[in-house]
Amino acid sequence: MHTIDAGSYSGPDVPAAGASSAVWLASSVSALGGLLFGYDWVVIGGAKPFYEARFGLTLPTDQAWAVSCALIGCLIGAMVSGYLADYLGRKRALLIASVIFTLTSIATAYAHDFGSFVTWRMAGGVGIGMASGLSPMYIAEIAPPSSRGRLVCLNQIAIVLGLLGAQIVNWLIARPVPADATLLQIAESWNGQVGWRWMFGAAAVPSAAFLLGCMFIPESPRWLAQRGRWDESRKVLQKFGGAEYADSALAEIRRAFEAGPGRSLLSILKEPKFRRVMVIGIVLAVLQQWCGINVIFNYAQEIFASGGFAVSDTLFNIVITGVVNCVFTLLALFTVERLGRRRLMLVGCSGLAIIYLLLGGCYVFGLQGVLLVPLVMAAIACYAMTLAPMTWVALSEIFPGEARGACMAVATTSLWMACFILTYTFPLLNAAAGTGLTFWIYGAICAAGFLFIFRNLPETKGKSLEEIEKGWR
Question: What CATH architecture applies to the domain 21-217+260-472?
């Protein structure tokens, strides 16, 4: 297993209390991108029975395309985010994502047919793909080593708050649906005509807040330094931690640039050690999706329906899953710096493998009912404390600084490709193999992920980004 020097970090850090209020404020604004990512990603689950009825989507392929089409936009957004982040700056790239979120949330709400709905969902996916990599990367670059894990976890907390917000909005907007309602009755109801539009349109409010906040946050000091704008970089660092912190941090950034100045992604990948880092990043990104938890959010209706729950009961159960997700993500905020990234990810993989074994058994042996909901909640709780936040923390830390934007773009592109495959194939796999066997497949993937992390991922808590890069060298 590759290791990084385990000695405690003695380089620059914000004195005494850790990250200053300015760092927390800038990180919180950036994390709003995660909130919109979470909202836009999960709002589809509650709106699903209503827009499907409105557009007459009865074929499994059409239903799968409606849910997964945004992922095409996510792929595009992830691919362009690296270029935008490296050439325009982290702040401007976040601004572009915020504009996309605002416009597409309104446009999706006004979609008049399935074609326009798909178009705007894909456009909104561009914003998701951009924000998914930009927000944690920006936070990691402004955060001091002792608080970086907690600060990057803010992005995941914002994601789950967005998930919970979408679930609550869906539940509050949707009017009760009779258990025996037909597709035509749902299509002609208020939910089928208007309700689902409000579910998507509500995202315009936090989108506008994100846009306004991005206008006032500073640019990443590390990006400014890469551009030779050392005075501006020092001012940002001084604002975050004082003059002594700024001088010490800049000195370490300079040393890192001297070790690998101004290289492209392709030149970095010529080094075997950094190729290995890129492979680790891609596998972690894919694992976060192929561990299977997102199908619970995106196909919650089908999962709970197979357990005997009606549509209205399912919407309430979805809200409960959001609350559990939020609570256990908050717990990650308090454990990431104490337990470390690697250990939490190992716990997540092993925990999910065991839960999926039991969950699959419930479906195979017809024991859903009262057992289904607790196991689903346990899977969400396990994921929320471990793989969900720790993947973003690890990805924001492990890549070399001179091409961090490009490397992050490759990893997030891989993540969204994996997410598209997962989301599109679940209804097909579920129909062909059954829900029980499907969850067993996800459990096997989690077991394989445990072995990969155990053998390849070093611990990075308490290290500066430059020290982590030096360890790989």
Answer: Up-down Bundle (1.20)
